[in-house]
Specification:
Distance between the termini: 147 Å
Low-confidence stretches: 20-28
Structural class: alpha+beta
Strand content: 35-45%
Shape: elongated
Number of domains: 3
Number of helices: 13
Oligomer: single chain
Largest sheet: 23 strands, mixed
Radius of gyration: 38 Å
Helix content: 25-40%
Number of strands: 23
């Protein structure tokens, strides 16, 4: 068949021409590869040196040019900073905050135009693929704002003598291994990231884009994705993890899915810490208009809003906190915010469908009680530590809607003064209709009181407070309140009723309704509270409300003092009875010993 095809002279001539052309292309490719590698190495080194002002140097072992495929493959690339140049700039206060070291075994450049680079000095690449790069980044806060060298040149101006432009369609970095060392704090913080992918689209450096602020590092968009990240806190008491993180510079949006913060077991935690124990789970976190470049350079957190969607926050009060002599003022939101070691400004934080649970252990009942605020929605305004922002507005406002014990609707408004040294704040709100028996999961273990009946109509409050005191008004409207007083049952490890005390409380102490009659004037109370140093923020809020709720249901100061005195007298009488019983036993034993002694004397010979 082949011989038949080549029987004509023109066919044989065509075949020979094709063979010769193929041989010429192969020979040309061989010599291009032979001379291309040093040319490319020289160009790349020159561009890196000029664009970084001699801070970085780049080397690679070899490069292969495949003309027919339009591909260049570069092997064993190393990008390193020149420490001498860095130290010199550091003395001049011009050193960057971040230093990068890069190792790549294989880099593939596709859809390239090598002759454009050589003859027209235009570097055009369709795609750059980097497989399994190893990146080491060290961060040191050398300065808090942009610094430039004296010549104040852009990247394009620095490379313009060597290249007219650089254009890369797509840059892909797969399975990145990143080690990040942060020297800015009191202690070196090291983070190791795996399962990380980076991509950049439409990188263009030319005379038109040198001042284009819509681009990040001259790229139209940079996307970073990180999967299945897990790490431990510095004190090893918590493990935090998330399933997926994505950052896009085009949308200025950071998304985190499946975030959780889990503490070590309860016994180990409270053995090592005097703080409350937190457990956090959030399905989705979204940070909008996030200025990543400022965060990367200077640890400045700036965003328009933060959205937390679906999750829970569980707080377990430390049963040993009374042994800690430190002032719990740090538990105030305004104080905690000021302690954040970062320049932060978030205009609005939105919470959607978040459950908040607080649990506390009562040694007297040997039980744990829990109160919950379910399906919490709302917003926090002006979350900032930025001094310029605080001068314009120093109030952080909170508006929340929740369901107390998953039943009564709670509307809450609060405001915190972020610059007042007295830590002033206000809070007001209203809790709607609910069956009071619902709160037994908290009152039984924590107060050893069981509510057998009662309907809350409304609980409203308006309180002003600071770091040491509080005052305001509390109103609680309810009907048919009845309770049972409990005590510990040591035999069955349970709580049992105290019938006499319960009868006395319902007959002589409790006011079963407010108002007493349907058309009557309801009882409202003005409250004044003093915060002890050992009392944390949320407990102080609750104690203030309780100081208005207790007199409303009949437990005013006089009644409480009477009950305490009665309990004291009862305890004294019980102790006296015990002492008398012990004396009687001793007397009986003494008489028995004397009788035994007399019998022994009679039996002696």
């Amino acid at each position: 068949m082949v011989l038949k095809f080549l029987k004509h002279k023109w066919q044989r001539v065509t075949a020979w021409v094709l063979l010769i052309l193929t041989a010429l292309v192969l020979i040309l490719a061989f010599f291009v590869n032979l001379y291309w590698s040093p040319i490319l190495a020289s160009k790349v080194k020159e561009v890196v040196l000029k664009s970084s002002d001699s801070l970085y140097t780049v080397n690679f072992s070899s490069a292969e040019l495949h003309i027919l495929r339009g591909t260049i493959v570069i092997f064993n690339i190393t990008l390193k900073p020149d420490t001498a140049v860095y130290n010199r700039r550091n003395k001049q206060h011009l050193a960057p905050n971040n230093l990068v070291e890069l190792h790549v075994k294989r880099l593939t450049l596709s859809h390239i135009h090598p002759f454009k680079l050589y003859f027209q000095r235009r570097l055009e690449i369709g795609e750059i693929a980097v497989d399994e790069p190893v990146i080491n980044v060290s961060y040191q806060l050398n300065h808090t704002r942009d610094t430039v060298l004296k010549q104040n040149k852009t990247a394009w101006q620095k490379i313009s003598k060597s290249l007219h432009s650089i254009h890369i369609g797509t840059i892909l970095l797969g399975d990145v291994k990143l080690m990040y060392k942060d020297y800015s704090g009191n202690k070196l913080a090291i983070s190791e990231l795996k399962e990380m992918n980076l991509s950049a689209n439409d990188l263009l450096i030319d005379s038109a884009t040198q001042t284009d602020r819509s681009r990040m590092l001259y790229c139209k968009e940079i996307i970073a994705e990180l999967n299945n990240y897990t790490a431990n806190s510095a004190n090893s008491l918590y493990t935090y993890k998330f399933n997926h993180l994505k950052l896009s510079t085009l949308t200025s949006q950071l998304n985190i899915e499946g975030l959780s913060l889990r503490p070590v077991n309860t016994g180990e935690f409270f053995h090592k810490s005097n703080r409350d124990r937190f457990t956090l789970r959030v399905d989705s976190i979204q940070l909008n208009h996030f200025d990543f470049l400022n965060y990367h350079k200077y640890r400045i957190i700036s965003a328009s809003n933060l959205i937390l969607t679906r999750g829970s926050v569980e707080i377990f009060g430390n049963p040993n906190h009374f042994q800690d002599g430190t002032d719990k003022i740090k538990s105030y939101p305004s104080v905690g915010l000021s302690k954040i070691n970062a320049d932060m400004k978030i205009d609005t934080a939105l919470v959607r469908h978040i459950d908040v649970l607080y649990s506390e252990y009562n040694k007297k009942s040997d039980k744990t009680g829990t109160i919950s605020f379910n399906n919490t929605n709302g917003r926090f305004l002006n979350i900032t530590t930025n001094q310029a922002a605080l001068q314009k507005n120093n109030i952080s406002a909170v508006q929340l809607t929740s369901y107390f014990m998953n039943r009564g609707r709670l509307n809450l408004e609060a405001a915190f003064n972020l610059t007042d040294k007295s830590n002033t704040f206000t809070y007001k709100g209203a809790l709607g209709v609910m069956d009071l028996k619902t709160v037994n999961t908290a009152t039984m273990p924590l107060s050893m009181v069981k509510i057998t009946s009662g309907t809350l109509k409304e609980l409203s409050f308006d309180i002003k407070a600071d770091g040491t005191k509080s005052h305001g008004k509390v109103l609680v409207l309810y009907n048919d309140l009845k309770v049972v007083i409990l005590k510990e049952d040591t035999v069955f490890d349970n709580l049992k009723r105290r019938p006499i005390e319960s009868l006395y409380a319902n007959l002589f102490i409790l006011k079963h309704n407010n108002p007493d009659v349907a058309s009557g004037m309801p009882r409202s109370f003005y409250v004044n509270g003093i915060r002890e140093p050992k009392t944390p923020f949320f407990k102080f809020m609750w104690q203030t409300l309780l100081s208005g709720i207790k007199p409303a249901i009949g437990l005013d100061k006089k009644t409480e003092d009477t009950i305490v005195a009665m309990k004291s007298n009862k305890a004294i009488k019980k102790q006296n009875r015990k002492i008398k019983k012990e004396k009687r036993i001793k007397r009986r034993e003494a008489r028995r010993e004397k009788r035994v002694e007399r019998k022994l004397l009679k039996n002696e010979p």
